[in-house]
Amino acid sequence: MGSQSNKSMWIFVVVLAVCLQVVFVFADCKQTATGTAIDFSKAYFMLNADMEKYVCSDLVGEDNDSAVTAFLEAVDSEAREMGFGKGMFRKMIYHVKTDTLTQDTESATIHIHGVNRTCIHPVFTFVAKLFQLGQISEFEETLDIVKEDGQWKVCGTPFGMSLDS
Known about the structure:
Layout: H1 2-29, H2 33-45, H3 67-81, E1 91-103, E2 107-118, H4 122-130, E3 136-148, E4 151-155
Antiparallel strand pairs: 1-2, 2-3, 3-4
């Protein structure tokens, strides 16, 4: 009798754990203004062209010319002038902290700060972090985030990026 009750208890625990896991996955998938600020910052410092999906239409010009494309081309050009590839300018960010300065249903102002370290290759960055090698620098920015077509997008001049650069 006791083993049947124990078995039922374990089945209940497993089913409850699976249900909670599903709820947590859906809760984690919900886009937030703060999450957009962090994801954009990670893509920005890693020089990832996917940061384009986080910028608002104000930062995209005509003929698919965008602030992101201009920024990436400028970094690539600067790297080539120095005799390096663009990868030498990539950075990973750590210890990211955000403060929501203002937020309503359609806009938010997020202050983000943290530290970054050069990331030629993620393994090298991990080893450098583990043994506290290399130089780290702090970054700090206030990002204007707006809701555009139901998605949070970064607007303004994030990290000095604009169509004019």
